[in-house]
Structure formats: structure tokens, C-alpha cells
Write a structure and sequence with these properties.
Helices cover 53% and strands 11% of the residues. The chain has 16 helices and 8 strands. A 5-stranded parallel beta sheet has the order 5-6-4-7-8. α1 packs across α15 and α10 packs parallel to α16. The chain is globular and about 50 Å long. It starts with a helix and ends with a helix.
Length: 329
Amino acid sequence: MNVYIQRCFIACICLCVLGMTIWYTGIRVYSVQLGQSLVDNTHFEKSGNMYTDKKRKIRVENGEDAQLVVYNRVPKCGSRSMQMLLSMNSKNNNFTFVSSKLYGEKVLTEDKQAKLVNEISRIPRPAIYDRHVHFLNFTKFGLTKPIYINLIRDPFSRAISGYYYVRFGDIYNNYTADEHYINNTKAKYMTFDECVLQDRVACSTETLFSKGMIPFFCGQEPHCREPSTRALYDAMRNVISEYLFVGILEEFDTSLKMLERLLPRFFKGSSTKINSSKKLTTAKSKMHADRKPPSEEVVQIVKNRLALEYQFYEFIKVRFNAQKEELEV
């Protein structure tokens, strides 16, 4: 009898894992189809050194038309390497680079939004401004929209990287850990698997979404931080209408080559620098030495919780590959 119960239990687990895998595969296929549909409405026309997005009507020719770029960097998506690169480029390519030191305040009151967009608009041109902040609508405050760019990465890899980052910190900016974990040893040393399997708030669907990538593209509205297709679609629409480029961390070198073509004033020479600078190639977070790889069970559970993030990621990959083909990179 006990053997029979054990076999039934194992069979149930196998069916659950199979069901989650099939569901996730279906989500991925749907996201690719949706992404292709949206990308089909945005074509980058090549004419010499100029690329024109027919929907946005933004022209970039030798960097002369690009005066203000906003990089509202998504955490744990190569932003440190990009910051170091832009700092070097600003000297070599003669543009203003303003990098915000505010890391925690990503959602702003309307008054703070108005103040920030006005400050950004007053930066001497040509310029790039970067900050960990959710998308800001400049036209809402009567200002000309800038060119937006960003980078994203595989949602699961980003989630687990962020989980350990807030606990064990970083060697480059002397950041040790989130204040919550400094005097909370149990929470600090809890593995990612334990957090997920014990249904801790830090690993819940709601927390993973609110700290995810979609809010950075959706915007400052409250619904952008709540897991929903509304937030997902608003993020997608903003990418199409507001972002000249969203790169993929897994294809970082290719992303830089594409930026060199799209925004040469700011990114000329970037692909060479990224491979020759020791400081850039070693810009990595310091992780806990005892960090264990997640179990397959946890991978499936978290990918399920990150379903909306994966839809967005697949959409961005479709757009990225379409631009890569158009740019012949």
C-alpha cells in the first residue's frame, strides 16, 4: 500500500511539472507571435547611415539628430558596464553624460516626475542621462520626448541575481546589502530555493513582478507594478513608441554594435572598448560563495511566476532580432 501511494505521489509530481512545462511553452510561443505582430508595425528603413523608424519618425544620421538620450537602466542587466562605457565615451565622443546616484527611488510622485524631466531637459546637449527609474512621459509635462534606450536579460537569471545582490552586495560601490538583511542573518542566508519553496514574500509573484523589468517600460502608474496583461501591453506599447533600442544582455557585444549604428555620436568605438578594457570586462557583482544553483523544481515554479516577464522578454527578442537584421549587424 505504501509503495502504491509513493508511486501515485511521484506520478502526480511528474504530471504537474509536465503541465507547467507545456503551459510555459505555450506562453513563449504566444509571446513570439505577439511580438512579431507588433514589430511588423515598426519598420526601420535604411538609407545610407540613416535609420528611420516609420512609426516614431525619429531619424538618426551620424548622431546629428540625437540630442538627448535617456537610459532608464533596469537593475542587474549590465547597467554597470554600460555606465563605465558611457563615461569613457563621453570624453572620447564629446557629449555630456549624467549618471544619477539615486538607486532606490524608481517610482516618483507627479511633482517629482515634473522636476526630474525638467532637469533632464536642461542638460547641455548632446547628452545621455541614466538612472534606475520607471519610464517617464516627457510629453505629459509639455516637453519634447527624448530618445529612450535600455537593456534587459533572461527574467529568471535576473531574478536570482537580484535575490543574492540585495543580500551580499557589490564590490564596486561598497554596497554591502539591503538594510533589511544586515541584522537578519536567517533571511540573509536563506537560499533562493528555500525562499521559493517556503512561499516567502520576497519570491512571490507580486514581488517578482513589482521588482521586475516590465514596470521600467510601463511607467509610473500604480497598475504598472501589479502583475497584469494591462501592464505588459502598456510596456510593449511604450517600447514601440518611445524606445529606439532595447538590447539583450545575453547578446551584449551585438547590442553595442547595433547602438554604434543607431547612435554613433554616443556609442562610436564601444564594441572595441568593451573588449579591451579590463575594468569593463570585470564589472561583475560579488555573490555569496555558498550560493547554490536552483533545483529544476524551483526553476519551473519561478518561471511560472515570471510568465508576464517572459512574454515581455520574448517580445523584446523578436524586436531585437528584427532590428539586427535591418542593421545588418
